[in-house]
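To illustrate the input format used throughout this study, we show a single complete record. The first block contains the structure-token representation of the backbone; no residue identities are included at this stage. The design step must infer an amino acid for every position from geometry alone.
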């Protein structure tokens, strides 16, 4: 089995409203529980909003800190899961079942495994 990171993106303007918050929470809880029950779940967490983000860089020997995400975009990174799956197609299938798939997107990326040293 390989590990894949499922990066959860969404445009806040397209997200469900406050009246749908309870249903969304239940959908995410059910999705997470299904990953755990299937044995695919490795880890995952929601992220605070971009207003809490700081980007740190080093340029010419100086540390630079900027408020906000590294890249400005309409879709923001809202959270992630790390899952185990047989292959890319299986990981994409897990991503396609996420509650946000109708109004957001999920980037599926293999996790690099370095050989033992």
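Output of the design step:
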């Amino acid at each position: 089995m390989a590990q894949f990171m499922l990066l959860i993106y969404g445009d806040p303007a397209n997200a469900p409203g406050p009246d749908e918050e309870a249903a969304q929470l239940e959908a995410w809880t059910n999705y997470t529980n299904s990953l755990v029950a299937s044995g695919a779940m490795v880890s995952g967490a929601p992220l605070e909003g971009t207003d809490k983000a700081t980007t740190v860089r080093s340029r010419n020997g100086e540390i630079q800190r900027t408020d906000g995400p590294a890249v400005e975009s309409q879709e923001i990174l809202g959270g992630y899961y790390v899952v185990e799956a047989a292959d890319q197609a299986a990981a994409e299938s897990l991503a396609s079942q996420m509650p946000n798939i109708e109004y957001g997107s999920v980037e599926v990326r293999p996790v690099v495994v370095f050989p033992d040293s």
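Structural context for interpreting the output: The chain has one domain: 2-110. The chain is about 20% helix and 40% strand.
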